[in-house]
Amino acid sequence: MRKPLVLRHPSILIFLAVLAVFTVAVTILSAGYGTGVISTSMVKTLGKTLCLALAAVAMDLVWGYAGILSLGQMAFFALGGYMIGMWLMVARTEGIVAASLANMPIPPTQAEITQATATQIFGVVGADSFPAIWSFAGSLPAQLALVVLVPGLLALVFGWLAFRSRVNGVYLSILTQAMTLALALYLFQNDSGLRGNNGLSGLQNIPGLDGVGQEKLSVWFLWASAIALGLGYLLIAWVASGKFGSVTRAIRDDEARVRFLGYSVEGYKLVVFTLAAIITAVAGALYYPQAGIINPAELAPIASIYLAVWVAIGGRGRLYGAAIGAVFVSLLSSWFTGGRAPAIDLGIYTINWVDWWQVLLGLSFVLVTLFAPKGIAGLIRK
Amino acid sequence: MKIFTSACAVAAVLAGLTGAAVAQDDTIKIGVLHSLSGTMAISETTLKDTVLMMVEQQNAKGGILGKKIEAVVVDPASDWPLFAEKARELISVNGVDAIFGCWTSVSRKSVLPVIEELNGLMFYPVQYEGEESSKNVIYTGAAPNQQAIPAVDYMAEELGVEKWALLGTDYVYPRTTNNILDAYLKGKGVAEGDIFVNYTPFGHSDWSKIVADVVALGADGKKVGVVSTINGDANIGFYKELAAAGVSADDIPVMAFSVGEEELAGLDTANLVGHLAAWNYFETADTPENKAFIEEWKKFTKDDKRVTNDPMEATMIGFNAWVAAVEKAGSTETDAVLDAIVGVEVPNLTGGTAKVLPNHHLTKPVLIGEIREDGQFDIVSQTEEVAGDAWTDFLPESAKLDADWPGKKCGMWNTETNACVQVQSNY
Amino acid sequence: MRLFLFFVALAAFLTLAVQSHAQDLREVVTQYRAEIEKPSRQSIGPVIEQIAATGPQGAALLQAWGDRALGLRKSDGLMVIVGESDSQTDAVTGAELPTEDVTMLRPNSGVRGLIAAALAGNALSDPDRARRAQALDALARRGDASQLALLRDALDDPDPGLAARKARLERLLTIQHDPDPAARIAAIESFGGDTGLDFRASLNPILATRRVALETVPADANIAAELTPGGAMSRADAYAMLVAADLAPAQMTPQAERAVLAQHINQGMVGGVPLAQLGHEDARDRAWTALEQQGLVQPAASEAEVDAALARFRFLDLYVEPNADVTDAARAALRGTQTRIGFMQAADLSLDALSLASIYFLAAIGLAITFGVMRVINMAHGEFIMMGAYTGYVVQQFIANRTLSLIVALPLAFIVTFAAGVALERLVIRHLYKRPLETLLATFGVSIALQQLAKNIFGTQARPLTAPGWLDGALTFNDVVSISYIRIAIFVLALVFLALYLVIMNRTRLGLEVRAVTQNPGMAASMGISPDRMNMLTFGLGSGIAGIAGVAIGLFAQVTSEIGQQYIVQSFMTVVVGGVGNIWGTLAGAALIGFFQKGIEWLNPANTLAAQTYMILFIIIFIQFRPRGIIAAKGRAAVGA
C-alpha cells in the first residue's frame, strides 16, 4: 500500500495550505466581502496572478519534467480566453439587444435579434454577421467545451506533427514560437472573425450577473482561480509523481535511451504537451474575464517567453518553484512599471524604474541562468 | 518553504500600498491615463506633459472652485488590459473626478466598460474612427467627418484625384475609416474598380510591391491619390519607397491621417515635401493663441525643439472645457459636469472656438497641410468649424443613429424607430 | 458628354482670352485679388488664363506664384515677388522694392499644377532646357486640346531627348484630344505594342464604359458588352438597377415588411394575428397576407414579376466614346500589350522577391555562422542588427556627408557588434555550451535588456538613417519593371557576404580551424587549436556581420529599438528551413521564403498580413516534412542541435 500523494510530497500540502490562507486573507481584506483594505483592482490583479501561476505550473510540466521548451504556451492561454470571451460577448450583447428590441411595437424574430447582435459586436470591424466560428458562441456549455477542445486539438495536432518527425530541442522551441506568431498574425487580421486588433472586450461584465458588483465578482473570480490553481497543481503533481512522471523525466534526460527501452516517446510527449495546453487554456479562460479585454497582442511570442522566464527564475522541475516565479516576477513587474517604485536620483542621472526595470529583468535573468540554474526554488532547497 | 510566506508578504505589502493612498479633500484630483512606457509611450508621454502643463497654468490662476488641482499620473504601459485596471484604480482608489487619457482605440474600448460602470468622466484627445458615443466620454479629437471626409473632398476637388488607393495598417481605425471612405466615394459616383485597398501589419517595412501596385493604378489615365492611415514607423519605409520609385507629390499625392509634427520630427523630410496631412491643428497656425501656447510648451518642457501637435490641442481643449463645465456646475460630480459641459465653448488654437455638442463630440475646423522641408506643414486649406458626427452618415447601419446625451439620455438613438438602441456603449 | 464639357471650357477660355487683351495686369490682379489669395483649383483656372494673357510680367507673376515666391507685404498688402536672397520686386510692375516683412501665399499643389500647365505652352520653346522639361512634365500631367496645338508648333527641339519626348507626347495628346478619328487611330497604331504607362493611360479613358438598362437600343450605340442577368451580372444586381432607375417596383425586405406591419397595428393585432406571435417569420407572412387581402398593403414584387421585368430590358455596357473604330483600335492596342505586361509584372514581382530574399539572407547570414556553424542559439542576434543600425544613425550625426558616413559606418558597425558579440560569448554563452536551451533563455534576457537600453538612449521614436544621394531613385527598365538602387545595393552586399563567408570558411586557416573545432573540439584542441579562442572569434564574426546587415536594413526601413525583433524569427526560420550548417541552405531558405511571401502577396494584394501568416504556417508544415531543412547536413555535422 503506497502512501497517498500528498504525504509523499509534503510540498503539495504546504502549497495548498498557503494558497488557502492567501485566498481567505484576500477575501477578508477585500472591498466586496471584508474590510476593503485591498481595492477591487488589486483583487483582480491577484486573481489574474493566480491564473498566471497555473499557466506557469503547466509550463513546468512540459519544460521542467518533459524537457520540451515550448515557447508557444500563451497561444493556448489566449485561445482559452478567446473561447470564453466569445460567449461572454454574445450573451451580454444579446441581452442588451433583446431588451432594446422588446420596446418595439412588433416583437423581434430570432433572426432579427441575431442580426442586431452581430451588428453590435462586429460593427467595430465593419462587418454585420457572425463568422462561422461563432456558431456555438450563444451556448455556454458549448463554449466551455471549446475552451478545452480548441487548444487541446491544436496542441495534439501540432505536437503529433512535430514529435512524429522528431523535431526537438531548440528546433522545437523555435517551431512553437512560430506557431504562436502565426496565430497572433492571423488574429491581428481584421477578417479573422475575432475582431482583429480590437479583440474581445468588456469581458468583465458577466451576463446574468448584472446586479452583482465588480467588487464581489472580483472575489468570486479570485476563488475560482485559486480553486483552479489548487486542482491543477494536484493534477500535475499526480501526473509527475507516478510511473508516467518517471518515464517523462527519463525522456527529458535521454530520449534515445527511453526509445530503445521500448517506450513510445512520442506518445508520452504528446500526452504531456496536450495536457499542459488544456490546463493553460483553463487558466486563460479564468484570466481574461478578470482582465476585461483580450486581443492578439496577448499571444505575441514575447508573452510566452516571459512565461518561460518566470518558470526559470522560480525554479523548474519543481512545481511550486514555477508558481513562485510567476507570482513573484509578475507582481514585481507590475510594481516597477506601475510608477510606484521610487525613482533613484544619482545627481547626474535619475533612474526611473519604468525605464530601467526591463534592463534589470533581462540581466537578472542572465544571472539566474548562469549562477542559479535551479532558480529561487533551488536556493530554498539548499 | 519560507518563500511562500514571503510571497504572501510581498502581496500584502503591495496591497497595502494601493490601499494606503487615502484621498485628500483639499484638492480636486484628475487622473492622467497615458502610457509612459511601451510602444505608445512616445506619443502619449507628450499628452501627459500637456495635461501637467494645463494643471500648472490653472493652479497659477488660482485653481478651480477655490481648490488646487492635483494630477494623479499612472502608467498603463501600452498594455490594453492594464488601461482598464488603472482606470478602475484611478476612480475607486484615488477618487479622481476626471480622467484625461488613452490614445489607441483598443485602449479606449478597454477603459469604456469600467468608466461606464463607475460613472466616471474621461476626455479622449485623439482623432478616431467614430461609431461611438458614451455617456462618460468627451471626444475631443476628430470624428471621421472632421478629418477623413473633408480630406478626401480636398483631394477630389483641389487635386483632381479620380482613383483612390486607401492604404492602412490593419487595425480598427484604418478599417473603419476606409469603410466609411469607400461608402462615401461610391456615393459620389466613384466606381468600385477605382478604389484600391491594402492593409499592412504594424511596423511594415517591405513596401516595394505595394508602391508598384499604386503606380500601376495610373494606367487608367485617371489621377491617383493615396489616402494613408498607415500608423507610426511604417510610414518611413513607405515614403522612402515612394521617393525611390520616383513618385512625386505632384504625380501621386499622399494624404496621411496619422502623420503629424511629432512623427516628422524624427524623419528626413526631403522625400516627403508636398505630401499632405489632414488634422484640426498644425503648429504653423498663425494665431496669437497658438504662439502663446507654443511658447508656454517650450518653457514648460525646457526644450526648444519640442513640437506641438493636434492631440495636444485636443487635450488642451478638453481640459479647458472641463474647467469651464466644473465652474458652471459648481461641482465636480460627474453627472452635474456632464450636464453643464454640453454647449460649453472654448477657444481653439487655430482661431474660432470648439463647442461641446450633445453627442459629446466637438466642433472643429479641418486643416490640410503640405509637408515642408523643415518637418512642419504649410496650411493650404482651412474650413469653418465642422460639427463632429458620432455616427457616420455614409454607412447605412449608422446613418439612422444619433446621439443626444442631455436631451434623450442616449448615445445610440435610432431616428427611424425613435427609440434608444442601448444606453451603454459597445465595447 | 466629355466632348461637350470640353467645348464649353474652350469657349470660356476663348472669350476670356479676347477680353484679357484689353486688360492689363494691375486690373486683373485687383479684380481677382481675393481668389489669388485663397485660390481653389475649381475656380482659379480663368484667372490664371487672364494673368497669363497679360504678357511677360504676368508670366513672371505666375511663375513666382507657382514657386510659392509670391507674397503680400504686411505693411500695405502690396503683392510682391520674393526672389533669391530675399530681394523683393513689385509683382505687377517688376520694380525693385526694399525688403520688408511679407506673408507668403501658399497655393495648393492642384493650383500649382494649373499654373504650370498655363505656363507650359510658352515654356515649350523656352531657351532654358530645364524649363522645357518642366513644361513637358506639366503637359504630361494635364494636357488638353489647346495645348496640343501649342505642342505641335513647338515640336522642334535642339535637345534630341526632349524632341523625342515632345513627339511622344504629341501622339499621346492626339489619341486623347484630336477631333479627327482617323488621326487618333493612326496615333494609336503608331505605338505598336508599347507598354508605357502613359500610353495605356491614354487608351483606357477611351474604353471607359457605363452600364445601362434599355428597352430599345439605339442603332448608333457603341456597345462594349451585353450582360445577361444571372450570367455576367447577378439577378439581384440587375433588378436593383431597374429599381434604382424607377423602372420596376422594389422587392420586399424584412425591415420594410416589419415597418409596414407596424403601421397596421389594430387593437394589439396585425391582420388578425396577435402582436405577441409576430416574433416568427411565418406569423408575419400570415399577417401580411391578411393585410393584402384586406387591400391595405400593396403586394410586393413576386419572383415572376421580377423575371418578366428582367426579360423586358437589355443590360448593356456602353462605351462613352461614340466612335466604334476608335474604341476597336484602342482595345486591340491594349490587348496587344497585355501579354507583355503580364510577363513584366512577373519580372517585377521576381525582382521584389529577390530583394526580399536578399534582405532575409543578409539578416540571417550572421546567424548562419553562430547558429549554423556553432549551434549557439542567440536570441540577441536581432539586437546586434539593431546596434548596427543605430551605429549608422550615430555616425550620420557626426559626419554630414552621407557617402562618407556610410563608408565609416559599415566597418564601425562591424567593430561595435563584433566587440558586443565577443563580450556576450565570453561572459554568458561560454558557460552554457552544454545547455543549448538555457543559452536560448539567457540570450533572450540579453535581448530584452539591450532593447530597453536602446529605448532609454535613443527613445522609442524611429531615427532617420538616410542613404546617400547616389542610392536614391530606382533602376527603371520600363514603366512596370523597376527596382530601387538601395535594394540593389543590399542584394550586392548579400552576394559579397556570401563570397566572404565561402572564402573565410574554405580558403583560410581561420575557417579550417573553425570547422575543426565544430566537428571535433577535443581533436582540434589536441592539434594545438584553442577551441576557446576559435569560438570567441567565430561568434564575433557572426555578430559583426549582423551589425553590417543592420546598417543596410536601416537604410531602407526604419531604425527603431524593435528593428531586430522584426527579423529574428524570420532569420531563424531562414536558417532552419535552409538546413543548419550550410550556407547554401541559408541561401535556399531565404529564396524560398522571399519568393513564397511575394507569391502570396500577389494572390492577395489587399492584405499583406495574411501573406506573413501563411508564410509562417508554410514553414511550420515544411519543417514537419523536412526537419533538417532543404539542404540537410550529413554525417557527423548532422548530429546534435
UniProtKB/TrEMBL annotation, chain A:
Any single Gene Ontology cellular-component annotation: plasma membrane
InterPro entries: ABC_transp_permease, ABC_transptr_urea_perm_UrtC, LivM-like
Pfam family, one: BPD_transp_2
Keyword Cell membrane part of the UniProt annotation: yes
Subcellular localization(s) per the UniProt record: Cell membrane
Superkingdom of source: Bacteria
Regions annotated as coiled coil: none
Record keywords, A-Z: Cell membrane, Membrane, Transmembrane, Transmembrane helix
Recorded topology in the membrane: Multi-pass membrane protein
Transmembrane intervals: 12-33, 45-64, 71-90, 144-163, 170-188, 220-240, 267-287, 293-312, 319-336, 356-380
GO terms of molecular function: branched-chain amino acid transmembrane transporter activity
Protein name from the UniProt record: Amino acid/amide ABC transporter membrane protein 2, HAAT family
Automatic annotation (TrEMBL), chain B:
Domain of life: Bacteria
Record carries keyword Signal: yes
The UniProt record lists the keyword Amino-acid biosynthesis: no
Pfam entry (one): Peripla_BP_5
Keywords: Signal
Entry-linked CDD domains: PBP1_FmdD-like (cd06355)
InterPro entries to which the protein is assigned, alphabetical: ABC_urea-bd_UrtA, Peripla_BP_I
Signal peptide start-end: 1-23
Family annotation (PANTHER family): ALIPHATIC AMIDASE EXPRESSION-REGULATING PROTEIN, PTHR47628
Name of the protein: Amino acid/amide ABC transporter substrate-binding protein, HAAT family
Automatic annotation (TrEMBL), chain C:
Single GO MF annotation: transmembrane transporter activity
Native source species: Paracoccus laeviglucosivorans
SUPFAM superfamilies: ARM repeat (SSF48371)
Record carries keyword Ion transport: no
Cited CDD domains: TM_PBP1_LivH_like
Stretches that traverse the bilayer: 353-377, 406-424, 485-504, 536-559, 571-596, 608-625
Family: Belongs to the binding-protein-dependent transport system permease family. LivHM subfamily.
InterPro entries documented for this protein: ABC_transp_permease, ABC_UrtB_bac, ARM-type_fold, BCAA_transport_permease
One Gene Ontology CC term in the entry: plasma membrane
Protein name per Swiss-Prot or TrEMBL: Amino acid/amide ABC transporter membrane protein 1, HAAT family
This protein's UniProt keywords: Amino-acid transport, Cell membrane, Membrane, Signal, Transmembrane, Transmembrane helix, Transport
Pfam families: BPD_transp_2
Membrane topology label: Multi-pass membrane protein
